[in-house]
Amino acid sequence: MNRIQPTSSELMADTPYGPLFGISQETYNRVWQSLTSPDGNSVTYVSMEIGADRDIYHPIKNLLLEMARREDISPDLQPMADKFLHGPGKIPTYSGGLGILAGDTLKSFADCRLPVAAVSLLYQRGYFSQLVDMNLGQVVWSREWYPREVPGLYLLHRPDDPQTPLTVTVDFYDHNDQPIQAVARVWLKLEIGSGLDYFVPEFLLDYDIAESPDWIRKAAHRLYDSSSEASKAIQRRLLGAGVLPVMRTLGLTSRTIHLNEQHGVFLVLALIAENLQRRLGEDYQSRAGDQDILDAAEEAARNVVYTIHTPVKAGHDRFSRSLYQGLEHSFYRRILQLLAADEQDPETYNFTALAMRANRATNSVSRLHREVTRAQFPQFRERISAITNGVHHLTWISDNKAAVYDSAPELAGWRLDPSVFTRAHQLLDNPRFRQDFAAAWQKDSKYLIDHVNGMLSEHRQQRISTWIDPPNYLSYLGEKESRLNAANFTFGFARRFSTYKRADLIFEDLDHLARILVDQQWPINFIYAGKAHPADKPGQGLIKSIIDIQEELYRRTNGLAKLVFIPDYDMAVAKMMVAGCHAWLNSPKRPLEASGTSGMKAAMNGIPNVSIMDGWWAEGYHDGQAGWKFGYEGPVNPELLSEQRAEMLYSEDAASFYEMLPGLLATFYQQPEREEYLDRCLMNLALNCPIFNTHRMAAEYLARYQLDLPAETTGQMEKFLALYRSDLE
Ligand SMILES: *Cc1c(COP(=O)(O)O)cnc(C)c1O
Prior knowledge:
By secondary structure, this protein is α/β, with parallel strands linked by helices. Among the domains are: 1-230 and 246-259, 3-Layer(aba) Sandwich (Rossmann fold), CATH 3.40.50; 466-688, Glycogen Phosphorylase B (Rossmann fold). It is built from 26 helices and 24 strands. β22, α21 and β23 (609-612) form a beta-alpha-beta unit.
């Protein structure tokens, strides 16, 4: 890495809100200036969750590690370095793909020096931790976390009174339109660009403080709290209604607001009200007619870019209208009545309907998802386009693979510019590179399998020492029988356990699966992980079925097949799995997986995907050069949106998997040199890594944001656009 060694003063910025570690004063001033400049040439990115754990990627952590190795950390830097290198590495305020996408996106914005600030919530109880019990299935527990202990997370203080935390206030309203104040502290996390000279601030609102009423605090405790409809509705409002207050308090001027999913759409109501006030004056509420509101909405929509993430029902907020009496001002309820009507149910507000109306650009998250979204919302067809998701390559490429990529002159500059990976084609015939790649892959596999074996041993101990019956059949066998072998073909499958992702699909016909393996004596590991939302009973049922299948699968294959579940899926487990398995499995019901991102993480590590032709894989499959496909791939008509078990195409798609599997395993096992298998690995890297990364995605969003930025900033994004346009066929 050709980085200039910073002095300690270059790693500290004084700001009116308190000191920040990891950036220089100059960087702070420059970025802050662009976020607060009167021209409004910046973006506010609003997301319910942001996943960006320091333990798997942080440019300052990498720098400090390097400095520590050289024993080059000055004494004044040491305390901060200690905290940074050894403090908690995880901020448990994400649940899955949506939040991690947000984190990856913000990291790429920072890398590409785009002026963006994010607004989200800080949940003092986070998202739940998962235990899994052999008999009970998923058990939810709440792991304490302490924001103050997390390095790189700062509580902001008042510029005029540095001892007092900065707060912002959001009004709720009782039945008589009397305000009830919800008060939030503001936490700041920085996504620092890989060049260390730029950052994207994330402002996390924490309403769980003494100044807020108890019912607000309770609704703010946990991400996606679903203890009641009211709690859910309040949580959405805490995000959306908090956006303008936090922007105004800090002086952020962005004209463009990006809603990452509709959760924060309440913001639009505030924009409409501001607009009406400007047009009609202080008593706008009594003066505004319906047409005034619609006109104001149209104007507000010009400031909003919206990304819709899923065709699945559970992803779209619909709340009973009666809920909002006692939460929302009657004038705002009037706006909701006009703009958030639900087509099916007059007693319901539909927040996707509101978000769909109140934006100037709606982005779906893959080409296929664009077609599905257009079919779902034909009246907004014109405005719906595709920006296929990506992942942050610096976050997801394992250290072992990164070292191999670093060693290839063809890939020089890949850290700054992932489009460089198009040149991986040239490496296909390079025996030295192939060997190095295979060796790095073996190390990653060993790391994963050692972790699994360690977990199984630990669970074997736990059996006698805790009330939890560990979730893996293998930990009830002897140490020797149970051990997984890293040389055996290993499938990785990990994501949220939602029914449409069909985690149990490939076990639909165990006899058939067992026959394939036993016939050829193919040993195989299946490593699974994922959480189900605490209110999602069918999702939890899927976890239980994975556990229940383990013994039978093992017996019928005479121990050839070992199916393991790793509890408490998070980014660290994900990174270990996407780099260490031999193929990444994805078995959703087409077309319900709007994009999917975990397969892209595998691609960056040169791991082939084995997937239904859904979401991004319909774009990344390349006639089988980059991996394997199975299952239904016909037209995506509306009947296919059903999530009923009987209509989930289990037997058809499983049969297709069994048909594909022998070819896949033969490629892996029957060629001692694995040359053909390795070709797919490197083709997945060469074809998909240059495209399905968040730098390219940021470039496509930048084109939608309509910012007026210096040519040096926009110029470097051109190469990504030249490579791919999601919105073309
Ligand atoms: C990438 C990731 C996801 C998203 O996976 P999908 O395949 O897109 O569903 C979920 N959880 C974690 C921890 C991840 O790292």
